[in-house]
Design goal:
With 150 residues, the protein is mostly helical. It has helices at residues 3-15, 29-50, 55-82, 88-111, 119-148. The chain has one domain (3-148): Up-down Bundle (Four Helix Bundle (Hemerythrin (Met), subunit A)), CATH 1.20.120. The chain has five helices and no strands. It starts with a helix and ends with a helix. The structure holds fe (ii) ion (2 copies).
Length: 150
Amino acid sequence: MPSSFFHANERMCALTFMAWNDRLLTGIEAVDTDHRKLVEILNRLYGGMQSGLGREVLDDLFDELLDYTQYHFAREERLFERYDYPLALEHAFAHAKMAKWCTEARADFKRGELPGPSLQVLSYLKDWLFDHIMETDKRFAEYVAARKKY
Ligand SMILES: [Fe+2]
Ligand SMILES: [Fe+2]
């Protein structure tokens, strides 16, 4: 195997911050599409930071990530209403807490000198997204799937 294969592969690995995993699928198509999109933006932002893109580009990508996060939360919350979800309040509260954290992270980034959001910020987003999908979003998806059987 040519050594360049390994280099290309290592580079790809280095730029993929959060690999998509089908374990993350909830079965609600619109929600899954949003989750994939969030992972994709997160990876684009990380890749941009790794390849030294300018602050303005990273700024736009960070905006895109935070805006899409809020857009996605709103979509899920509309679904809670449609399905009369009994855990809507606590799920929406988790969203609101995250939205507040995002707003603060964004303000910190704007004030700071760093060329991009810190890796700590991206890692927190990644871990939060993974845990939230696996536990909270999936709980909602199970409820929807059970209701559809009636
Ligand atoms: Fe979600
Ligand atoms: Fe959610």
